[in-house]
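Hi everyone,

Forwarding the result from last night's run.
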Amino acid sequence: MFEAERKQKILELLKEYNRVDIQGLNRILQASESTIRRDLRELEQKNLLKRTHGGAVALQNVNFEPTFLEKEISNSGAKKMIAEKAAQFIQEGDVVLLDSGTTVHYLAKELKRFTKLTVVTNAIPVAQELQHHGGVELIFLGGTLRQGVLSIVGPFAEMMLGMLCVDKAFVATNAIHPKEGLSTPNVEEASIKRKMIASAKKTILLADASKIGEQYLVKFADVSDIDAFITDDRASAQMLADFMNQGVVIHTVSERERLGH
């Protein structure tokens, strides 16, 4: 099968099934995994699909949510810089809430230099990161486990949040759009994020630029519901201006500055 034929077949399969994996494409296309990975990379560069860990998804699939591992390997450099910036907003003695998500997990690593913090979280990776750190009193929300993304959701977790008041909530999102707000593919995830925002005196959104301008199935907040937004400098200046016009303080980080360029 010629290259153009392979790529066309990949797009046809995505149109029908919304998601493909490399092993399945290997069987269907009779091409090597390295060839398929190259095809997926080139199709993504043309904005025809979105690669994931082990495959690809259709861009229009608003119900797709990557696993924690898939998120962890995506834009990791930007996420680490965002986390480093977010740590500057935290002071000794604060009560902070950490949402689930890989960028927030990087923030949890930064908290090990503090000696007196209370951390509330529904994220298993965050709890694991901080469980042995003596400077953190850890409050872990109980409820229903979402296997792939390793977060706790549901009425029990929301009930606990309803009894708490935190200084700062560091919230993640799958998408943020100037008009459509913040959204995620999962109803229960959206519900607990709403509770997080409601429980906080100040809400700080952590999201790399790939999330900007996107929209997923379930909206959980308006842009005006957040106080600050930390992202990276690949973000569109016009989009950031639209967020600022809604009262959000924007902070951008740059890998070039971090590397001293």
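The longest helix spans residues 3-17.

Cheers,
N.
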